[in-house]
Amino acid sequence: MVAGALLWVAASAHAAQTLDVLHWWTSISERQAANSLATALAGEQITWRDAAIPGGAGVGAFKVLKSRVLSGHAPDVAQLIGPTIGDWAQLGLLLELDDVATDEDWQTAFFPTVWKLSRFQRHVVAVPVGIHRINNLYYRPEVFAEFGLLPPRNWAEFERVAAHLQRAGITPLAQSSEPWQVATLFETLLLAETGPAFYRQLLRQRDPNDWLDARVRRALERLRSLKRWMPQPLAQRSWDEMARGFARGDAAMWVMGDWARGELNSFGLEVDRHFGCAAVPGTAGMHLYSVDTFAMLSDDYGKQRQQEAFARLAASVPVQLTYNRIKGSVPVRRDIDPAQLDPCSRQSWQTFGQGEAVQAPSIVHRMATDEGMKDAIIAQVHRYFSEDQIPATEVQRRLAAISKALK
Fold it and tell me: N or C end of the chain: smaller count of CB under 10 Å?
């Protein structure tokens, strides 16, 4: 009986030192970034039990999370981002991290936008781990140098560069037909046309008439016009497959969030040497962002100590620098040394640090709006991109009607 009791106590202690972490990081660089967090936890004698769910933009992971919570098997830690954090907090499902935030002075250390995203009704309910910039144009320096080309700063320059490359037999622009990737390209074009202020107004105020604005129409028309610079026929390829293709030289340019840079780095490629990084034409000085965050699911508070340790570690300066260097994102803290960042990361971190005036929350990556509006925008934009007979004005009318219905 005594031996059995001791075994039970030992097993319980071991279980209590394990955190079940649900996320959607499954590419090479994402796995490496997750491993860096797991290694930091191991230093605290806490085991990261991995629950990675494949699927770009977290579509599959959100479905699994809901299913697990409803079945009574919620993970200890879950990747949640944007307005969805508030949805889960409102249900009383998230552990409040106020003590950790106060002890570590997160309010001072974090960028104001990040601090705001971490809170719900004056309580800290999530730990941010990295800021992604989405309006990135990646290009192949050796190809540009061969033809004496420079990274395009506006769309007129882009058209000239793309035409030159196409005449030389080089595919100018990489693109997948996967809906969220098409919509990610669109939101960068929308930002280029509208600027951050109107972009935020469009998604936050939910005035249906804003969707009828000429700038929205121009962004849609540019999305379709860019098809002539893409490989034909377009295939539905995952973003990490696109990264491998870009690394092989399948195309000269690619618009994608900076998780792509993390993936290119995982192949042994270096920024400014093997690939270049610039802002999408028309968006220099702007930051279309997504912030990766983790929330702690509270049940009986049996894992509170381990969950708080995770939060404390994930936001610390050493872990921030290590993790974001691998992931391609940048630290959520404004007290790090920018000299430790590569040129592309440094530009992202410094631009974001200029404040809300230059910031635009991603639609596709759950920063700007609720799930219903996000899904509607992705569906309408993808349909428009795929079916050439649909006029841009019809998409605008549909989005206006959806915005009105969901408001």
Answer: N
